[in-house]
């Protein structure tokens, strides 16, 4: 018999925020290979080990293929009809008892733009609340807040192509070689060919090993360091005075503040030698085309938004953003669609396209399209949802694609919140730590089975296309939201994902030029894209900043210490982050047979600390904070700074997030994953 034909499906990687374009080859409904797309706008024929090989999870025997409902305390298989009936009854009961604000939903980067759009529409239209948030709360919410305050829009200022043309790169709190491998490889090429590199990272990893200057501040002292760099820019006449005069606001206030941050004092606050602060400032200050690229080492702090703003100050002082020369301020988004989840309005204070729920113009536009009044009181953020559940004020919590019990900080308290909530609904691929605690579990679709779009780290909408049929009774988040709405007797419209993006384009002027048909025809398109006949804006602020007066805003925010500092009882600082072979909670990469490259989590610590605390390489060690403890295998490495330990959060079994603190960014509630005071005990 002849073999079935090979099918080629062009789609977008569902792992990190680089958004590599991939070609998935299937035969008879099974993947035979995943190839990087030679024409991919970011990856250009490259992909990393995750995108190419971490797809075996779709056929894992652990995959959920039927709904589950809790009966007599146990999760048991059920029909979709029974599961939906249970969800609908729970939602009605929650609203009857506590009103619409007794219901909350957590959406995520695992969902497409169209799914995120539909979730937030469901919450606002069918329930009548703004209690909808997404996983950016845990990573780049400070970027959205900080970049909006500094420049006017919630995305990075430039395309990655712009960044590649820089002659000096200020890379802060990011390890793209592991967390964004294709970007890491492209940046490494540029550095090896002469682009000057200033790396700011407590650890000596990845690109930092190739830096002209490597600054290793104490975790939690970013704002002081950025002010030290800004101080030198001003003191040495490296600021662009004409740009500041024409296009910036806030210089007198910032100048006054920066007087308190001379390099000698910054050295005391941050641990970075004063001479290195000066050298780094001169490199950035004298470059023709400087670019800033940063990651979660800037945002996941008690003062993460201040960190973003203090970093943006440097680009403004140099006139190295928008109308000026240079390539701006660019966050590396960790997850495939974390930018898009926020763009689509899965936020408690923003509608699709970032119109505020308190803005009558934005709500009037949404109300006209949706046909019902939009609630105008900002909803709960994710940590507030958990607090409300623990306080008995939440009757139903719907969680889509997030394993909050594994990935959110102070995980013991998160589990308490779920246990206290009368109805927890979870849409998942596997029986995650969160799903185990749910009352209803709906079997979800993976990125290889979905139709829609993602937005990557440099604001490009790209098409996601299904390469595989859905297993068993699993359904897309798009279908599940429609089904729950129908069970409540609500018709959400937007029958297809293409319909949803078309409707979103009517609600949000910045997406008005986008459609599936156009993306199919033209390929990736960046936002803002208000006109179907014009390209999107890959580089922002070419004519003016998007602030009310068109000027970039300098921020005079003082340095304040992190939520926890090492002391006698807890003398070390724990920093968490990513490893190259795995992705987030590891639910997909750990279940992939062809990816057994990194089988367990490790606690990295400096050899001198290992001697001090009697810890041996390769042996188990207990890491303990004021919040909890976890057991990991010690790895002695000089990548770790003295006085600091590092581990990932890819292995829920090690329960690292029972250790991390509940401190969070003052502005946005983003957790301070990067600073927890801990101590070590050999097992
Ligand atoms: Fe590209 Fe990131 Fe996917 Fe790797 S994980 S293939 S770098 S999008």
Instruction: Report, as a whole number of angstroms, the end-to-end distance.
Output: 60 Å
Helix content: 25-40%
Q: Describe the main β-sheet briefly.
A: 7 strands, mixed
Radius of gyration: 24 Å
Overall tally of structural domains: 4
Approximately what portion of the residues adopt beta-strand conformation?
A: 15-25%
Taking pLDDT < 50 over at least 5 consecutive residues as the criterion, the unreliable ranges are: none
Q: Which sequence of strands runs across the widest sheet?
A: 5-4-16-15-14-6-7
| Helical run tally | 23
Q: Got a strand count?
A: 26
Question: Which small-molecule ligands are present, each listed once?
Answer: iron/sulfur cluster
CATH fold name of the largest domain:
Rossmann fold
Family: In the C-terminal section; belongs to the prokaryotic molybdopterin-containing oxidoreductase family.
Keywords: 4Fe-4S, Iron, Iron-sulfur, Metal-binding, Oxidoreductase, Repeat
Enzyme class: oxidoreductase
EC number: 1.17.1.9
Tag the structure with descriptive keywords.
N-terminal domain of TfIIb, 683 residues, binds iron/sulfur cluster, Rossmann fold, alpha/beta, 26 strands, Dimethylsulfoxide Reductase, domain 2, 31% helix
What does this entry show, briefly?
With 683 residues, the protein is an alpha/beta fold.
Describe the protein.
The strands form six sheets. A seven-stranded mixed beta sheet has the order 5-4-16-15-14-6-7, sandwiched between helices. It is an alpha/beta fold. The protein has four domains: 6-59, ADC-like domains (N-terminal domain of TfIIb), CATH 2.20.25.90; 68-135 and 341-448 and 474-499, Rossmann fold (3-Layer(aba) Sandwich), CATH 3.40.50; 141-332, Dimethylsulfoxide Reductase, domain 2 (3-Layer(aba) Sandwich), CATH 3.40.228.10; 572-682, Barwin-like endoglucanases. α4 (141-151) runs parallel beside α14, α8 (222-235) runs antiparallel to α11 and α8 runs parallel beside α14. The protein is globular. The longest helix is centred in the N-terminal third of the chain and has 19 residues, at 80-98. The structure holds iron/sulfur cluster. The site of iron/sulfur cluster has 14 residues, from α1 and α7.
């Amino acid at each position: 018999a002849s073999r079935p034909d090979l099918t080629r499906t062009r789609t977008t990687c569902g792992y990190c925020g680089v958004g590599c374009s991939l070609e998935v080859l299937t035969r008879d409904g099974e993947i035979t290979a995943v190839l990087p797309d030679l024409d991919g706008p970011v990856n250009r024929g490259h992909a990393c080990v995750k995108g190419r090989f971490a797809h075996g999870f779709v056929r894992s025997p652990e995959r959920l293929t039927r709904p589950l409902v809790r009966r007599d305390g146990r999760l048991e298989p059920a029909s979709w009809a029974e599961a939906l009936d249970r969800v609908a009854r729970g939602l009605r009961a929650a609203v009857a008892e506590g009103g619409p604000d007794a219901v909350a939903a957590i959406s995520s980067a695992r969902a497409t733009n169209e799914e995120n759009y539909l979730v937030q529409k469901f919450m606002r239209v069918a329930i009548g609340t703004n209690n909808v948030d997404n996983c950016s709360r845990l990573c780049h919410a400070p970027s959205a807040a900080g970049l909006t305050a500094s420049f006017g829009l919630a995305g990075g200022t430039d395309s990655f192509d712009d960044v590649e043309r820089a002659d000096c790169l200020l890379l802060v709190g990011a390890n793209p070689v592991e967390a964004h491998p294709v970007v890491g490889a492209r940046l490494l090429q540029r550095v090896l060919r002469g682009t000057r590199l200033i790396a700011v990272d407590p650890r000596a990893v990845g690109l930092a090993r190739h830096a002209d200057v490597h600054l290793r501040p104490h975790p939690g002292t970013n704002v002081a360091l950025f002010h030290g760099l800004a101080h030198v820019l001003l003191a040495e006449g490296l600021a662009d005075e004409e740009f500041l005069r024409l296009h910036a606001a806030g210089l007198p206030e910032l100048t006054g503040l920066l007087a308190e941050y001379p390099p000698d004092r910054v050295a005391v606050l941050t641990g970075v030698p004063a001479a290195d602060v000066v050298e780094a400032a001169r490199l950035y200050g004298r470059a023709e085309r400087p670019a800033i690229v940063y990651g979660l080492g800037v945002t996941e702090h008690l003062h993460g938004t201040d960190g973003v703003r203090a970093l943006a100050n440097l680009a403004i002082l140099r006139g190295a953003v928008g109308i000026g020369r240079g390539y701006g301020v660019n966050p590396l988004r960790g997850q495939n669609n974390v930018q898009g989840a926020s763009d689509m309005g899965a936020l408690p204070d923003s509608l699709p396209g970032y119109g505020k729920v308190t803005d009558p113009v934005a709500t009037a536009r949404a109300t006209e399209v949706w046909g019902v009044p939009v609630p105008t009181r900002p909803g709960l953020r994710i940590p507030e949802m958990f607090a409300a559940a623990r306080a008995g004020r939440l009757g139903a919590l719907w969680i889509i694609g997030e394993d909050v019990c594994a990935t959110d900080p102070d995980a013991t308290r998160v589990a308490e919140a779920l246990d206290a909530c009368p109805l927890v609904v979870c849409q998942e691929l596997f029986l995650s730590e969160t799903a185990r605690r749910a009352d209803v579990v709906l079997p979800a679709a993976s990125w290889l089975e979905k139709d829609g779009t993602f937005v990557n780290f440099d604001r490009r909408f790209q098409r996601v296309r299904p390469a595989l049929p859905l297993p068993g009774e699993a359904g897309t988040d798009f279908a599940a939201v429609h089904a729950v709405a129908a069970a409540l007797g609500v018709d959400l419209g937007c029958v297809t994902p293409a319909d949803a993006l078309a409707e979103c384009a009517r609600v949000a002027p910045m997406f008005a030029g986008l459609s599936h048909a156009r993306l199919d025809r033209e390929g990736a398109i960046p936002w803002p894209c208000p006109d179907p006949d014009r390209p999107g804006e890959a580089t922002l602020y070419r004519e003016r900043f998007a602030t009310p007066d068109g000027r970039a805003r300098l921020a005079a925010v003082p340095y304040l210490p992190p939520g926890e500092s090492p002391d006698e009882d807890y003398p070390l600082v724990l920093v968490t982050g990513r490893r190259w072979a795995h992705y987030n909670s590891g639910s997909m990469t750990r279940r992939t047979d062809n990816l057994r490259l990194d089988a367990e989590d490790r606690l990295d610590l400096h050899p001198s600390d290992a001697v001090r605390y009697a810890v041996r390489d390769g042996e188990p060690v207990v890491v303990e904070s004021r919040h909890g403890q976890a057991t990991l295998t010690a790895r002695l490495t000089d990548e770790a700074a003295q006085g600091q330990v590092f581990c990932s959060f890819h292995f829920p079994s090690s329960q690292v997030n029972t250790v991390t603190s509940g401190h969070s960014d003052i502005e946005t509630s983003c957790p301070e994953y990067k600073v927890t005071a801990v101590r070590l005990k050999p097992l």
